[in-house]
Amino acid sequence: QMFCGSCSESFVARGVTNCPTCRAVLHVSPKEKVRLLRQLVARSGSRHTQHAQCSLGVCYEDGAGVSQDIAEALRLYRLAAEGGHMLAQYTIGCCYDNGFGVVQDAAEAV
User: Fold this and answer.
1) Which of 23, 25, 60, 85 could be cross-linked to 72 through a Cys-Cys bond (beta carbons 3.0 to 4.6 Å apart)?
2) Contact by Cβ (8 Å): 95, 103
3) pTM to 2 decimals?
């Protein structure tokens, strides 16, 4: 899942090059993915903004297409979580539970 939450590499196997929901190009380099996600995040108010924020957070967490930056990943996860993105909420909870990029805090993890 890249931009809208419906994007899937399984479409590529069927010969589909763009997501039928958000029209994102499905098979791109990590750097191009980061560029496209940044564009989508900049268009705040888009129906795909929270998913793009979370996906961009994953790129920063993993160092895929950008230099690894846990603080930026957490910032993006928080933005997405505040918008109601469940995976971002779960990821932040895991970070607090495991002390990944933050001080370990079981109460905050819940």
Assistant:
1) 60
2) no
3) 0.79
